[in-house]
Design brief:
Blueprint lengths: L4 E6 L6 H10 L4 E3 H8 L7 H7 L4 E2 L2 E2 L1 H8 L3 H25 L5 E5 L14 E6 L2 H9 L6 H10 L3 H7 L2 E4 L4 H23 L2
Length: 204
């Protein structure tokens, strides 16, 4: 029985991964957005709130998780971060499995996963697609975000596999340092390529 080709979509902060994920969706490719799933599970009445509250008392309320507070707690504390991840990651994995079952008939699906290499997720996908832009463009995009500082940017980069290494490990690299139209053309060309490969494989 055939199953979808699973694309692992990733890229460092500010590289345009979310924009590219939207382009895949517009082209009709189902996208599993790990960040969006986590936000929902940590939002009002979210299923992860009891476990997070038990591990980090005072961090949840009627509005869901206080992301800023938790962010400060785990910012420079690897043990606290690991504790949070043992709550979040298994729950995300269950949602991902349900997503795959729901879209079992699609030729291609996308897993939008920010820390694909860092957490070993690249081993669970068929193709790795990395979005990348020149460092100066990345920097400008990130520092334009509300509340972003040089220190935060440097800390986030320190937790991520360098862009050059991601590109070296990728099966496909999408250039987001160009216009949106040109990036979208790259996305559609990649979908056409992978769809053709899937059709060929399934016809054998």
């Amino acid at each position: 029985m055939s199953r979808p080709v699973i694309i692992g979509l990733t890229g460092s902060i500010g590289m345009g991964k979310s924009t590219v994920a939207e382009m895949f969706e517009r082209a009709g490719t189902p996208v599993f957005d790990a960040d969006a799933v986590v936000r929902a599970m940590q939002g009002p009445q979210g299923e992860l709130l009891p476990a997070i509250e038990a591990a980090f008392p005072g961090t949840t309320g009627p509005g869901g998780l206080d992301r800023d507070l938790v962010g400060r707690l785990v910012f420079a504390d690897k043990d606290a971060l690991a504790r949070l991840e043992t709550i979040v990651h298994p729950a995300v994995a269950r949602k991902r499995e349900a997503f795959l079952i729901e879209h079992a008939g699609a030729p291609i699906v996308v897993f939008d996963i920010p820390l694909l290499f860092e957490k070993g997720g690249h081993k669970q996908v068929d193709r790795v697609v990395v979005v990348s832009a020149p460092a100066d463009i990345q920097r400008d995009r990130v520092l334009a975000r509300p509340g972003m500082t040089e220190e935060k940017f440097a800390h986030i980069l320190s937790l991520q596999v360098p862009d050059s290494e991601k590109r070296a490990k990728a099966d496909h690299v999408l250039d987001t340092g160009t216009t949106l139209a040109e990036t979208e053309a790259q996305v559609r060309a990649l979908i056409a390529l992978l769809s053709a490969e899937t059709d060929q494989k399934n016809s054998r």
